Recover the amino acids of this structure.
């Protein structure tokens, strides 16, 4: 048959009968011990399949299939939203003062107190409604998806997902999502096989194979379901994705159901034309919804501190109210003595209780309540809503940043919550996953060893790092004898074929036929082309072949075989077709291999085999697996190249590559016949030891193998990872790697991305000691646990001793710990010692970590040092870590969307973390910090003038300003400039943020929102109020205000002070801004103009409405020259102290951003000497990354020169 043409299918994929392929998985279902629990507690669900009219089915009253993820409903929105708003202390305070404003105690009208509160609450509720409506639209889209549902007589109608009921029979077609949890009945394959992608559930891109019961596999046409009835008993709804226990009763017989028959909601049907399934769990009973938990409520450190400032302001309001009420009570008591009225204008002889000298104590209490309402303007009512608006706008800018857009996958950055924007500028520790986060999770075939000869001239990231570790360029094997330095730009060209990065002219382009061991090379790549479970797909238009594989490694092997001349292009029910180069004729031929058995890979076997019959009738067993299980299965005659292959495998492992050993042997027909009978008996067994019987049979056949060689695939570092880590390290951020990989691989990746370097002392904590191994052989669990914990504790103590002995030189140490040891290190009595050791090291790598351990380590770091932690990962196994950290960043890569859906921010590549933190994080932190400080400053400036005026009027509870002046101060005359600052201000540009990463340390140290800075801004507010009040009062006191000789009253004094305040707080904003835009000019000068327009228009309203402000500006203030002179003098006098302080600080005591602004101003940004001088101000030395590597090399050179 060699050379005979096999017609290429015109369809993208042909239907394949896979019963022969899945010998181990597609076996007869059997009852297990767990099935005996059916009918008991937790296993009481009863489903009548295809019986919608059954009275028993109606009585079940199970959940419908409508899924809601919204926070509110139409009926609950108003009460729940109001509850959420008034949970905030400040809002509740304003609600109470608003209610009290309807009483005689109020120093202002009720409308002036209620309207601003309604505006602020209403704006926040609108924002909540908009966000919830977006979630509602997503729910509508999902619930209105359509699926074919059986409606009797063998007819299937398209219906919406939300209408599905338990027991319905549905037909799901290729690339559609499953609408509910289904029991698989049959598929387009004769043996009820189907392929399922569970990316949305567990993050895995590998296709899972599911198989229906044999008894229902024949139901492959719509008409077959006419009259079909089945009765299912199974477990109750639960969150376990990987378990399912049930029985199906059909035609009087019972059949066991297992996870092999369960298709989960939100997983997708792949490589299968259609399936039929019975609905078992619907809606909120489905396993994916059972697994969905409300994300933890996260609040930034600034927001938490802001609450403390609010409480401080409450205390100040109470204190001022108390002081004022005491003074007022004493003054009121002495108001009417011996018939003399001191404050005659208050009429104490005929006043109500508020000024009655006979009830002075009661008057003082009433005054306290009145003053508490009047001084409420110390609390910025618009603070919360302004910050929410700013954070939403900041999130939009993050989402729109073109520099964080990954064009290849069409994925921009996405801030999924705006609550934590400023937290991005305060990250102290990053805890990162490895696979798919630091690496691509995209395997590339890069090297191989065949017949003792190493092939492949590609250079891995790890090899380049190893070259740098050795301090000299490495020599690459090439035809030329030139030394080639490891340089990604200089040598490595990006492969145009995904999964293939192999270059070696000795075997490429058919040159392998001239090699000494050409026959071994042929068998090696033939094995790669045949030994797999990959499905080929042929595009009808381009006729290009793509592969659907259960793992990235499998796909890489098949692609490598194709690129090197062994193209797997078709799979039928029992055959595999390969185009290959014939060694004898030198021509390309098509060969057909009959697949007899597939012995699948699992974590116990660590190998995979296929038994095939070639065109010459030879029976071949082709096997690939891990080196520790394959070398022991080699025959004496098959070990010819063992020593060389072992050496190559070790070299590949050192280079961070994943290796597999390839071997084969020919089978005798008699031997195979015996094996086939035994494997058939084993897989048909219904006993509990069926798996062990199968394993025993496969053990006997997979032996006496002949070694062919080894493969090496690379899980490449993502582009820009080393540079990103270097910049983050320069910013003073510590980076921990938490991975499930083995220690050797993790260490190699650590070197590749410069988390580790040559001169670092590695503190390795593991349980690979002879004592532990000997205890493990005895099997005494308590003794093993005790000894293991003692060993881990001792290693941690020894590590701390090394740190202490080094004098705290943390850049010299790296901590590496495996999962077994980590389990003991996280015990309550050990974890704090472990954290002390870890914090003292420059790098921390946790290997073989489980998802739970990742979350526990994150919790330990977060709670242990009190600093901001950021976790970044891409898979479902990272969800716990992302939710536990202060900030969770999901990589929207190839491992599905579960990590992204559980994250606070999603980015497409790890390298975007650099810009996210150093640019957006720094800007957001600085903006929010300055914004909050400024809010309290402007409110203290305004509120303290009220207190001073009250003191001036002997605390008579008379406000200095008109009611609407009070109400609109925070809403119109001072709110927009601070919002503009929060959105647009930049102390330095993005380029300088990246050029000088140490700028980020302002956030790590929290220097911009320290109590010193907060109290400084408050002090600025207090002295500004004092200057404004006393200068205005003194300037207007006892002198003519205009040419008519009139002296000013409360309205003129209040109007003048208010004008000065509006000017001062807005110009103070202008002084605080570092980066002016047109918008900021508009809102700052516009706020001042709006004040003049308002006082003019408001003063023209009838006196009943405008009260004391009636025509006060037009008739009194504007015509008076002294009003304008006083305004200018007071504004300049008030702002001068801040201006002088800022100038002195900038010139003589600059902060980080000040130093960089000076460098930019003086044009010294490219001067290495000045830049190094700035970098020396770093809070901690750069301990990892390329920069640290170069510094270490310089130190080494200096030491050698001095020696």
């Amino acid at each position: 048959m060699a050379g005979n043409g096999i017609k290429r299918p015109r369809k993208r994929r042909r239907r394949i009968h896979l019963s022969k392929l899945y010998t181990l998985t597609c076996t007869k279902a059997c009852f297990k011990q767990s099935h005996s629990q059916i009918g008991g507690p937790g296993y009481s669900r009863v489903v009548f399949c295809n019986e919608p009219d059954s009275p028993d089915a109606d009585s079940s009253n199970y959940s419908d299939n409508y899924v809601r993820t919204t926070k509110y409903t139409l009926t609950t929105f108003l009460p729940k939203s109001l509850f959420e708003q008034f949970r905030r202390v400040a809002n509740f305070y304003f609600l109470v003062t608003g209610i009290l404003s309807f009483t005689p105690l109020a120093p202002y009208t009720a409308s002036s107190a209620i309207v601003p509160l309604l505006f602020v609450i209403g704006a926040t509720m609108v924002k909540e409604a908009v966000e919830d409506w977006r979630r509602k639209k997503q729910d509508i889209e999902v619930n209105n998806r359509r699926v074919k549902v059986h409606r009797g007589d063998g007819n299937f109608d398209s219906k919406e997902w939300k209408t599905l009921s338990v027991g319905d029979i549905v037909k799901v077609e290729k690339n559609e999502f499953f609408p509910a949890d289904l029991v698989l009945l049959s598929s387009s394959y004769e043996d009820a096989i189907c392929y399922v992608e569970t990316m949305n559930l567990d993050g895995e891109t590998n296709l899972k194979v599911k198989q229906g019961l044999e008894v229902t596999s024949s139901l492959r046409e719509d008409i077959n379901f006419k009259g079909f009835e089945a009765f299912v008993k199974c477990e109750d709804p639960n969150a376990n994705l990987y378990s399912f226990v049930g029985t199906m009763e059909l035609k009087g017989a019972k059949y066991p159901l297992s996870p092999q028959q369960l298709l989960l909601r939100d997983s997708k049907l792949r490589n299968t034309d259609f399936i039929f399934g019975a609905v078992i769990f619907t809606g909120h009973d489905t396993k994916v919804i059972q697994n969905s938990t409300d994300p933890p409520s996260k609040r930034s450190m600034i927001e938490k501190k802001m609450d403390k400032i609010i409480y401080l302001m409450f205390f100040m309001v109470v204190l001022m109210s108390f002081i004022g009420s005491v003074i007022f009570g004493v003054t009121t008591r002495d108001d009417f003595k011996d018939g003399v009225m001191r404050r005659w204008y208050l009429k104490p002889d005929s006043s109500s209780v508020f000024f009655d000298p006979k009830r002075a104590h009661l008057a003082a209490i009433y005054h306290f309540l009145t003053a508490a309402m009047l001084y409420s303007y110390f609390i910025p009512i618009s603070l919360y809503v302004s910050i929410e608006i700013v954070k939403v706008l900041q999130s939009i800018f993050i989402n729109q940043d073109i520099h964080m857009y990954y064009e290849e996958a069409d994925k921009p950055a996405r801030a999924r919550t705006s609550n934590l924007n400023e937290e991005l500028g305060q990250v102290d520790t990053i805890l990162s996953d490895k696979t798919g986060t630091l690496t691509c999770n995209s395997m590339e075939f890069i090297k191989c060893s065949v017949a003792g000869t190493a092939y492949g001239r590609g250079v891995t990231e790890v090899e380049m790092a190893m070259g740098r570790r050795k301090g000299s360029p490495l020599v690459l094997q090439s035809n030329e004898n030139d030394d080639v330095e490891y340089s990604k730009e200089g040598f490595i060209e990006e492969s145009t074929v995904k999964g293939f990065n192999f270059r070696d002219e000795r075997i490429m382009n058919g040159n392998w036929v001239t090699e000494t061991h050409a026959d071994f090379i042929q068998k090696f790549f033939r094995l790669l082309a045949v030994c797999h479970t990959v499905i080929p797909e042929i595009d009808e238009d381009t006729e290009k072949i793509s592969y659907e594989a259960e793992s990235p490694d499998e796909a890489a092997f098949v692609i490598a075989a194709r690129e090197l001349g062994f193209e797997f292009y078709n799979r039928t029910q029992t055959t595999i077709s390969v185009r290959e180069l014939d060694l004898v004729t030198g021509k390309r031929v098509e060969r057909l291999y009959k697949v007899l058995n597939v012995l699948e890979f699992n974590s116990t076997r660590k190998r995979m085999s296929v038994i095939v019959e070639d065109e010459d009738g030879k029976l071949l067993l082709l096997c690939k697996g891990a080196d520790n299980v394959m070398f022991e299965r080699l025959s004496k005659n098959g070990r010819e190249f063992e020593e060389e292959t072992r050496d190559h495998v070790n070299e590949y492992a050192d280079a961070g590559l994943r290796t597999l050993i390839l071997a084969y042997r020919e089978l005798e027909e008699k031997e195979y016949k015996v094996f086939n009978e035994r494997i058939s008996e084993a897989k048909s067994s219904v006993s509990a030891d069926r798996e062990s019987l199968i394993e025993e049979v496969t053990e006997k056949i997979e032996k006496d193998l002949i070694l062919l060689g080894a493969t090496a695939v690379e899980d490449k570092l993502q582009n820009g990872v080393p540079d990103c880590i270097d910049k983050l390290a320069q910013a003073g951020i510590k980076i921990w790697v938490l991975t499930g990989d083995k220690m050797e691989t993790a260490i190699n990746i650590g070197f590749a991305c410069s988390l580790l370097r040559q001169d670092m002392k590695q503190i390795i904590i593991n349980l690979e000691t002879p004592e532990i191994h000997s205890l493990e052989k005895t099997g005494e669990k308590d003794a093993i646990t005790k000894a293991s914990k003692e060993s881990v504790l001792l290693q941690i103590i020894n590590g701390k001793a090394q740190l202490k002995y080094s004098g705290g030189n943390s850049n010299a140490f790296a901590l590496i710990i495996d999962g077994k040891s980590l389990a003991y290190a996280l015990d309550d009595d050990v974890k704090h010692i472990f954290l002390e050791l870890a914090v003292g090291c420059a790098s921390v790598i946790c290997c073989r970590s489980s998802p739970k351990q990742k979350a526990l380590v994150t919790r330990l770091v977060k709670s242990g040092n009190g600093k901001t932690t950021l976790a970044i990962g891409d898979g479902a196994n990272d969800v716990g870590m992302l939710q536990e950290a202060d900030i969770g960043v999901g990589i929207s890569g190839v491992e599905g969307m579960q990590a992204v859906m559980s994250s606070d921010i999603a980015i497409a590549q790890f390298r975007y973390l650099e810009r996210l933190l150093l640019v957006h994080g720094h800007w957001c932190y600085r903006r929010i910090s300055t914004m909050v400080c400024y809010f309290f400053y402007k409110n203290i400036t305004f509120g303290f003038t009220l207190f001073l005026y009250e003191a001036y009027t002997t605390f008579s509870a008379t406000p200095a300003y008109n009611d609407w002046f009070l109400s609109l101060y925070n809403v119109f005359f001072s709110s927009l400039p601070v919002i503009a600052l929060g959105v647009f201000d930049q102390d330095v540009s993005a380029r300088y943020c990246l050029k000088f990463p140490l700028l980020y340390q302002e956030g790590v140290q929290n220097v911009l929102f320290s109590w010193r800075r907060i109290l400084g801004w408050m002090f600025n507010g207090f002295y500004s109020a004092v200057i404004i009040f006393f200068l205005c009062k003194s300037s207007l006191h006892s002198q003519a205000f205009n040419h008519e000789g009139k002296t000013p009253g409360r309205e003129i004094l209040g109007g003048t002070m208010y004008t000065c305040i509006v000017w001062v707080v807005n110009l103070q904003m202008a002084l605080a801004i570092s980066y002016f835009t047109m918008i900021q000019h508009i809102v700052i000068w516009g706020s001042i103009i709006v004040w003049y327009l308002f006082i003019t228009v408001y003063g023209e309203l009838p006196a009943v409405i405008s009260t004391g402000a009636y025509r006060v500006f037009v008739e009194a203030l504007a015509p008076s020259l002294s009003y304008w002179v006083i305004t200018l003098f007071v504004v300049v006098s008030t702002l001068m102290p801040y201006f002088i302080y800022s100038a002195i600080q900038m010139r003589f005591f600059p902060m980080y951003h000040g130093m960089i602004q000076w460098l930019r101003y003086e044009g010294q940004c490219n001067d290495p000497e000045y830049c190094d001088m700035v970098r020396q101000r770093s809070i901690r030395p750069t301990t990892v990354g390329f920069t640290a590597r170069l510094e270490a090399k310089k130190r080494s050179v200096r030491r050698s020169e001095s020696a």
Observations:
- The first strand starts at residue 45 and ends at 49.
- Residues 1-27, 472-494 have pLDDT under 50 and may be disordered.
- Residues 159 and 713 are 46 Å apart (CA to CA).
